[in-house]
Amino acid sequence: MQLEIITPEENIYSGEVEMINLPGSDGFFGLLNGHAPLVSTLKAGDIKITENGSEKTFTVKGGVVEVNNNKVIVLAE
Questions:
Q1: pLDDT of 8-41, one tens digit each?
Q2: Across all residues in the chain, what is the average pLDDT?
Q3: In sequence order, which ranges of 1-77 are alpha helices (DSSP H)?
Q4: What range does the domain containing 29 cover?
Q5: Burial (0-12, 13-18, 19+ Cβ within 10 Å), 33
Q6: How many domains does the chain have?
């Protein structure tokens, strides 16, 4: 699935990923390819992504995530 992580200052990530773990306001949740459409708020924490078998971590102060048609957009603080 396609992922974009955007802050007010810059686009910090854009690419194809296998899995995403996000710090939702009500707890952590994961996204895989084919996930149902979703909009959720995020709390401060780490976004962990898996791409090509390796894991990357991005720390955010909060934000919003939208999932639709295998495209995930994170608007982060």
A1: 999 999 999 999 999 999 999 999 999 999 999 9
A2: 95
A3: none
A4: 2-76
A5: exposed
A6: 1
